[in-house]
Design goal:
There is one protein chain. With about 120 residues, the protein is mainly alpha-helical. It has a domain at about 45-100. The protein has helices at about 5-45, 55-110. The protein starts with a helix and ends with a helix.
């Protein structure tokens, strides 16, 4: 294999790795922004038992329920955020593994005298 072919192959590896990384950014970008906005919105919501507070236990139970709903929404959004971040990380890991694998195969071929 001549040097020009090696450079073309290295360029192909770089393009593939960049494409996979770009896919990871594209897959995670918009959903991550949406989740962050929803998380901020949920954090701003202040549910209150309001007038029900006058009814003692009923008002207190409603207040606890509102708090639980808010906490559950925040936990759900954080879990979804983690899932999207994991997709992004897997895309980068895949791209890095592709580059590492190609480098390892080139080194092996060089050691065998193929290149």
């Amino acid at each position: 294999m001549d040097h020009a072919s090696q450079r073309r192959d290295a360029g192909k590896v770089a393009v593939v790795a960049d494409s996979v990384r770009g896919l990871g950014r594209d897959l995670a970008g918009s959903p991550m922004r949406d989740l962050e906005e929803m998380t901020r919105a949920v954090a701003r919501v202040r549910l209150s038992s309001g007038a029900y507070g006058a009814f003692g236990m009923l008002g207190s139970a409603l207040g606890r329920s509102f708090d639980e709903v808010n906490e559950a929404a925040q936990r759900y959004l954080l879990a979804k955020r983690d899932q999207i971040a994991e997709m992004h990380d897997k895309a980068y890991d895949t791209a890095n593994a592709y580059v590492d694998g190609d480098a390892a195969s080139a080194a092996t071929a060089a050691n065998l005298g193929v290149l």
